[in-house]
Design brief:
Number of strands: 18
Helix content: 25-40%
Mean pLDDT: 92
Number of helices: 13
Structural class: alpha+beta
Radius of gyration: 24 Å
Strand content: 15-25%
Low-confidence stretches: 111-117
Distance between the termini: 59 Å
Length: 454
């Protein structure tokens, strides 16, 4: 049995539901009964409610979890919730009788991950665990209150503390306010699944995430951003079906504006009628998702060698909804799907050279590392759009350069996106038009262009 697709348990949830509270009290009191000195009972109960709610929220019974003590110390923790209390209560929950959490497969070293065997220990929540929470609904599960709207990590994904002087900056205060107002507004927007059940607020709790400093990055992330497009478009806003508007090739569009002061790439006579930056006629056998991944890798990489080392690892896979997914890998990460360049670096080099030949107007941006700047630019756009949409009463769920919203607000969202793009990017936002794609729940898509010159 393969456990590769089993994901790690993340303590992102919390609940005030009575059944979760009683379960937490029982777990904590049983744990503390084994100790000579009892201190911090209420804090333990709060932690237990987070742990229990997070296990309940999982779609399946299986999950991975590490119990390596070092990872739950301030020096090595990568998540704010990785505390000693979480580890102690989890260990007690799996040891207590009757069995609430059962061991399925013992973990092995991550150094073996290249052959697929490296993983954290796999556990399974039992029927006994679920029977204690029969009346809990998705809407009863809230985000972990310890999670902050703005998160800073280092290159090793270790959580960094945010200096107080940064917290007092205008941009920081405004970002927190926009995120918190957006979350409160979404909670009142009656987001539901096709079966009528409410979407848990945990799914649409957003954070702006930065790496090392606040000079770049800052994109909006939530559990919702990891949903498949099909799943995203199957939700409803107070019985109003969802649509999405996706800015077509946002980063290439910004590059054209930054380097060429144009909205689209000029078409050369020898290169034919190129559709956009992701059109690679020689590689038409690859799905478009491959070119989006690889072309953006060219922009993001700081030099050619880094770009080639990344591209040569590209694999094409299909997710659980039947959608193509292209991934690149580092080190000994387990590869999934079909390898795109069988001849490794040679094939990656040919792809890069072909892109430079057929898309010469992007030459200055290739392997320049501009991707970090572009992410900061698009994060500003998202922050501004969410700020305005919340103020005018349009619920919007961002997924990077895509925005999910109620169908009846289609005309409003088009005008809002146009104006926010102009305001955010000033002169660059008033060049030509902005290509977008409207996606519908039935899979249909329409290409539109928003005129930015008025």
């Amino acid at each position: 049995m393969s456990f590769y697709n089993v994901t790690n348990l993340s303590i992102r949830a919390y609940s005030e539901h009575p059944e979760i509270y009683h379960f937490a009290e029982w777990l904590v009191d049983d744990y503390l009964s084994t100790k000579k000195r009892v201190r911090g009972r209420q804090q333990y109960i709060l932690t237990a409610r987070k742990l229990i709610a997070s296990i309940w929220l999982r779609e399946g019974d299986l999950f991975k979890f590490t119990t390596k003590a070092d990872y739950f110390t301030p020096k090595f923790r990568k998540q704010v919730w990785m505390t000693s209390k979480v580890l102690k209560l989890f260990n007690h929950l799996k040891a207590i009788e009757p069995c609430h959490i059962s061991l399925v497969k013992k973990g092995v070293s991550s150094k073996m991950s290249f052959n697929g065997e490296g993983l954290n220990t796999v556990y399974c929540r039992t029927t006994i665990f679920k029977d204690k929470l029969r009346n809990v609904e998705l809407a009863d599960i809230l985000p972990n209150p310890e999670l902050e709207p703005i998160e800073l990590k280092d290159d090793n994904k270790k959580l960094l503390s945010i200096p107080q002087e940064e917290r007092e900056q205008y941009w920081f205060i405004r970002s927190e306010e926009v995120i918190n107002n957006h979350f409160s507004f979404l909670r009142n927007s009656k987001l539901t699944y096709p079966n009528g059940k409410r979407v848990s607020p945990v799914e649409y709790f957003y954070q702006r995430k930065f790496k090392n400093d606040f000079a770049s990055g800052g994109r909006w992330y939530s559990d919702f951003t990891r949903w498949s497009k099909q799943k995203r478009l199957n939700i409803s806003f107070d019985k109003d079906k969802a649509l999405s508007i996706d800015i077509s090739q946002l980063h290439p569009t910004l590059i054209m504006r930054l380097y060429r002061q144009k909205d689209v790439e000029p078409i050369g006579m020898l290169r034919g009628d190129l559709k956009d930056a992701y059109h690679m006629p020689k590689y038409d056998h690859f799905p478009r998702v491959v070119h989006k991944k690889l072309v953006n890798t060219l922009f993001n990489s700081k030099n050619e060698d880094a770009a080639l080392r990344s591209i040569m690892t590209a694999h094409l896979d299909i997710n659980e909804d039947g959608e193509y997914v292209c991934n690149t890998y580092k080190g000994k990460q387990k590869r999934k799907g079909d390898k795109l360049f069988k001849d490794n670096k040679k094939g990656a080099k040919e792809y890069l050279e072909y892109f430079k030949w057929i898309h010469p107007y992007y030459s200055k941006a290739i392997c320049s590392g501009i991707g970090i700047k572009l992410q900061k630019m698009d994060s500003h756009l998202v922050t501004n759009l969410i700020d305005v949409s919340t103020q005018v009463g349009i619920p919007v769920l961002p997924v990077h350069d895509e925005f999910v919203f109620p169908m009846r607000r289609l005309n409003d969202i088009q005008e809002l996106l146009k104006r926010v793009f102009q305001i955010t990017f000033k002169e660059l936002g008033e060049i030509g038009s902005l290509g977008c794609k409207i996606a519908y729940p039935d899979g249909k898509e329409n290409d539109i262009a928003l005129n930015l010159q008025n």
